[in-house]
Amino acid sequence: MNDGTDRNRRPVKFAAPFKNGSMKILVLIAQVPDTTSRIAFKDGGTAFDGTGVTWIVNPYDEWYALVRALELKEAAGAGSITTITVGGADAEATIRKALAIGADDAVRVDAQPADAYGVATQVAAYAKDKGFELILAGKETIDHNGGQVGAMVAELLDLPYVALASKLDVAAGKATIERDVNGGVEVVEAALPMVVGCAKGMAEQRIPNMRGIMAARTKPLTVVAPVAADELAKAVKFELPPAKGAVKMIPADEAGKLIELLHTEARVI
Questions:
Q1: What is the pLDDT along the chain (269 residues), one digit of tens a residue?
Q2: Whole-prediction pTM
Q3: Residues 82, 197: contact at Cβ < 8 Å?
Q4: Structural domains in the chain (count)
Q5: How many Cα atoms occupy the beta-carbon half-sphere of 182 within 13 Å?
Q6: What is the domain range of residue 56?
Q7: Which of 57, 86, 158, 265 is positioned for an S-S bond with 62, CB 3.0–4.6 A?
């Protein structure tokens, strides 16, 4: 459906958006390298070299999933937002940033994320008996761009899943979701609980203020032991893209030479 209305509009207030009138939301938070970090590999290209890397909250998790969760809670005037991260103790500074933005509490599963299925298994094991009505995740992480964890969590918990959502509203125990499709917008409705993969358009980035940063220091961060999980996929080698070659300048009056180079060197025609 594409009716020309503003898909980024935000309702000011919800009337009892969840079945029990409150909100209980779980947001998946991944730690990823900052996009400005120098990327290198070690051990013959089989492992990522984290030396000197600055780590951040995955932007899709932070800007869209977490912030939309905050908007839903604020609009309802009640509820709680928990973040969950699979990672070691070195991820706790990143987790605290999510708390500074506004999450109420955080969980860290004490395991190194090996593959998407392993991460999803840990998240599902924690969430299965906690009564979360919404589980939100970014559409993908910016380091591996797999986009698999949200769908796997939904499958393991036997919940509905909608990926690439650009808008999410909740009312009376039901979610109404929009996502961009070729030539328009698709509108999906599903009963809660459910899992949603959040993409651009879902919300606007928030910057932690000093009050939030100070409060994050004392908010609960619970560390839980991992459950047994199979590793179904393994990266066997990483390679950097080839270095860019020198630029060739072709005079404007030598179109024939340009066409020849596009054919013989660039091989795009």
A1: 333 334 443 433 333 445 555 789 999 999 999 988 888 899 888 888 988 899 999 999 999 999 999 999 999 888 999 999 999 999 999 999 999 999 999 999 999 998 999 999 999 999 999 999 999 999 999 998 999 999 999 999 999 999 999 999 999 899 999 999 999 999 999 999 999 999 999 998 999 889 999 999 999 999 999 999 988 988 889 888 888 878 888 888 888 888 888 888 888 88
A2: 0.83
A3: no
A4: 1
A5: 0
A6: 24-224
A7: 57
